[in-house]
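Retro notes, structure queue

What went well: the backlog is down to a handful. What didn't: a couple of records were mislabeled last round, so from now on we paste the full input next to the output in the thread. Example, using cytokinin dehydrogenase from Salvia divinorum:
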Amino acid sequence: MIAYIERFVHENDVDSSPDPDSAADYTSEVLSDLRVAAAIGGAISDAGKDFGGIQFSKPLAVLRPSDAADVAKILRLAARSPHLTVAARGNGHSVNGQSMAHRGLVIDMKSLGCGIHVDAAAMHADVSGGALWDDVLRHCVGNYGLAPRSWTDYLGLTVGGTLSNAGISGQAFAHGPQTENVTELEVVTGNGDVLVCSTRQNSELFFGALGGLGQFGIITRARVLLQPAPDMVRWIRVVYTEFSDFTRDAESLVTRPVGDTFDYVEGFVFVNSDDPVNGWPSVPLDRYGSFDPARISCSASPVLYCLEVALHYKNEDSPSTVDTRVERLMVGLRVKEGMRFETELGYMEFLLRVKQVEEEAKANGIWGAPHPWLNLFVSKNDIGEFDRVVFKNILKHGVGGPMLLYPLLRSKWDSRKSVALPEGEIFYLVALLRFCSPYQTGLSVHQMVVQNQEILQSCTKNGIDYKLYLPHYNSVEGWKRHFGNRWTRFQERKARFDPMAILAPGQKIFSRNWQHS
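Corresponding output:
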């Protein structure tokens, strides 16, 4: 079998593309002893692109292992080649080719199944790394009345994928990102070892893999913390014309004690116009709501701000009780008359709200369009300058999609894990979720990418303290700046758990000969 893979790699690991039929034959022959299903054709084409739609890189094969042992065999075989790399691909929702392996092997993580085993007494669930979060939600809530504590806004993502980055949403201010809400992992390292790790067992791998961008191992199982699930959600949006009012209120809510604030706090920036995608119509929470622009001062800036909060409650809570709790929490917020919008919906419906957007976008033919997103963490100290330079200037006409903006707390993130953060206790997520619709006029994909670069250059020029979230750089120097004084630790973990740099080549951090270059 080793002779087969060496022949396969030797004949295919070249600049020119192999003949598809011969590549298929070799792949089948090489992997027959692994009991791993291999896919070519359409699956290879799918694995050569991602949600971003701006990077394309064709792999040699897409592999569908059935368990962690199969994943380990794939990695051990890849290690016999001087060039072959392996990428774990969940739902392909990366935006800069992070889940790709140019002329390498792509592992379809969903083939591991969506195994979810709940221990209701211990309040945790052991979940396959290839399970989608929306499956975790339905299983835990539907069968046990329990739910994970921290989410992402979009749940069509794999557990292993979000844990390899951070996993954030409106609950992260209270419970930390998803990486702070797991107590145990099963990880297949680049050495081909299957290791169970936690804060007490193989702890360096545990801390490294969480937020580690797939560089140290492939997460095949995670033990996720659970809490009692509510039944209903009161969902509220409040509009601000002044950035200082918006940030003051948002920071006030996220720094209150848990239990004395809302269960969810986010926010976004929108254009002060009637643009149906970027402007006023994007604010009301239901199709019957309306935004009255007459309540906005004619001297207001080109962009406005919306604070978005939610309160969880049970079916047995009376409407008056919920109203009282909401109004108590709203005390002190600078809410202007007529600028508050609210609705009620079920807990699962609230968490799956982006699923409806996805279905509508697919029906309209824009879900598959390019999405040159840009995600940043910006220090509280510089968020005002960011607003002035970026939102009020570069992005005053919007991005053709949501511009999320909300505060997070550094104390909720364990510094032993791999995620790089800006300085200070409070920092902001800035997520520019561009949609490049083929039916609308506006910037081309290329122009959007150029504008993203302009934003980053402006941040650097103005001394704004920021870190990329879901980072992507094309040079080692870029990664060194990203990790700062944690770069040495990151390299040491790589040398220990994936010394041949087989894993996650799409991140473009390490090459196969990195320790000799």
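Agreed that this is the format going forward. Reviewer comment attached to the example: The mean pLDDT is 91.
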